[in-house]
Amino acid sequence: MVKLHYVLLLLISLISHSNADIKTLRLTSDPCPIIILDKFAFTHFGQVTISVSDVSVTSSLLRPNPSLLGLFLLSQEVEIQALLEVRQNPNFCILDSRYIVALDTFRNLSPPPHSFFNRTYRVPSPGGYSLFFVNCDPVARVSMNVHTELYNFDFDGSKNYLSHGQSRLIPLFFEFSLAYFFLLVLWAYYCYCNKESTNRVHNLITGLITVKTLSLICAGLDKYFVEFTGLPHGWDIFFEVARVMSSLIISALITIGFLFFKQFLPEKEAKAWMVPIALQVLFNLAFPLAVMMEATWPSVVLGLALLDMICTCTILVTMGRSIWLLKEAAKTDEKAAMRLAKIKKFALVYILAVGYFYAVPRVALALWIFRYQWVSNAVEEGAILMIYVVALRMFRPVNDYTILDAQDEKEETMAVANEESEV
Is the link from the previous residue into 232 a cis peptide, with omega within 30 of 0? Predict the structure, then answer.
């Protein structure tokens, strides 16, 4: 079980990224074998300052060995090798690994009762690193306060608490927020000019664009304050709130869309769609909260991502099967052709949602893993902006689906009238 915890946390360190600023952590009788403290991309002028105070180590057996507890840096370039080394050796302590940059162990603590140390370390080479605390004593419980500062020095000698390359994100976020604000103005104007066709879906879309604009502003301000002070000053909280609100609105839009198109599905097909869509809505609401707690529950993040992928594949397979069956039926049945048009429209809506929730972030993540951090954010935001533009084009107040609904109702009314006249 201890080795599983090692593996999960090292895997999370591969796919997670942080603002990497000034952080303070309090541990109380913590038995965890390894804890991710931070993640940062250093330049040639990078440094780490670590302050550990009020240290207390207890054990139910023998006196704890202080050399088995310590802090180290692990380069992203050798994380896979370190992961394999830990998995292959059941009794191996990662502090003895040749892949890590050992910083300090508890042997260098000042004498009790006020055990502490405060040191600054130069990073040996530039690149992305993860900062870990490790406890290789399986029966030891650790209590302490940890204060970390990870930063680079700019050419003017000032500290920059953003990872290398992230300073470019500040203008990027503000530029995209202006693009979304322009899109919001156009959408609001279009809705105002077509009041008769505007409904609750269009109001939700207005709220979604507004929240997206605010989230980008909060992200830019978060990066700005972290760069100079090392602290986000609360803007990270506003950003997370905006992200949760976006997930809520998109989930509401998917639910409304499914309820609308469900009437054109056979009952058996509707039930087959209902369960995975409901689960996926719940997963997308829970995932932002799980990511915030990934250091504590790494398995929850991986589990939600896996279940979300299973639900997505289930819905896409069921959707493809329904479209294929309706295509066959549409050759001889006019109502089946009308249903096919409706299902195709919902399929396009769902594919856009999959692109927003699943495809675009994972492409950006792949670019981030391969060190293209600034490019990954630009690609992600640009792709999401295109998804918004396509969705707004599809669901503007005067749209095909509104006209199609009216035509359907007219045809049904005429059919009823003809039947009555024949009777």
Answer: no
In degrees, to the nearest 5, what angle opens at C-alpha 145 toward C-alphas 142 and 149?
Answer: 125
The amino acid occupying position 139 is V
Which of 358, 268, 361 is CA-nearest to residue 316? 358
Residue 313 DSSP code: H
162 residue type, one letter? L
- The SS3 assignment for 333 reads coil
- Distance separating alpha carbons of residues 118 and 363, to the nearest angstrom: 40
pLDDT in tens, 315-347: 777 767 766 766 666 666 666 666 666 666 666
Q: Which residues of 316-333 are buried (b: 16+ CB within 10 A; e: fewer)?
A: eebbeebeeebeeebeee
- Judge contact between 374 and 165, C-beta under 8 A: yes
- Total Cβ atoms within 10 A of residue 213: 20
C-alpha to C-alpha distances, 72 to 3, 99, 137, nearest whole angstrom: 18, 10, 16
Max Cα–Cα distance, the chain, nearest Å: 102
Closest CA to 248 of 200, 221, 281: 281
Q: Quick one: tokens of 369?
A: 């893993």
Answer for the pair 52, 144: CB distance below 8 angstroms, yes or no: yes
pLDDT of residue 216: 93
Q: What is the mean pLDDT of the segment spanning 295-313?
A: 66
**DSSP readout, 198-258?**
--HHHHHHHHHHHHHHHHHHHHHHHHHHHHHHSS-TTHHHHHHHHHHHHHHHHHHHHHHHH
CA angle 287, 291, 292 (to 5 degrees): 120
Instruction: Give, as one character, the DSSP assignment of residue 106.
Output: G
The β-bridge partners of 275 are: none
pLDDT in tens, 110-169: 777 667 888 999 998 998 898 999 988 888 889 999 999 999 998 888 899 988 888 888
Two tokens at 227?
């760069």
Residue of higher predicted confidence among 420 and 256: 256
In angstroms, what CA-CA distances link 186 with 180, 212, 388?
Answer: 10, 15, 13
Instruction: Answer whether 232's CB lies under 8 Å from 162's CB.
Output: no
**Closest C-alpha to 99, from 76, 122, 66:** 76
Cα–Cα dist 91/47, whole Å: 32
Q: What is the pLDDT of residue 252?
A: 81
How far lies 173's CA from each of 217, 238, 241, 265, in Å? 7, 15, 17, 42
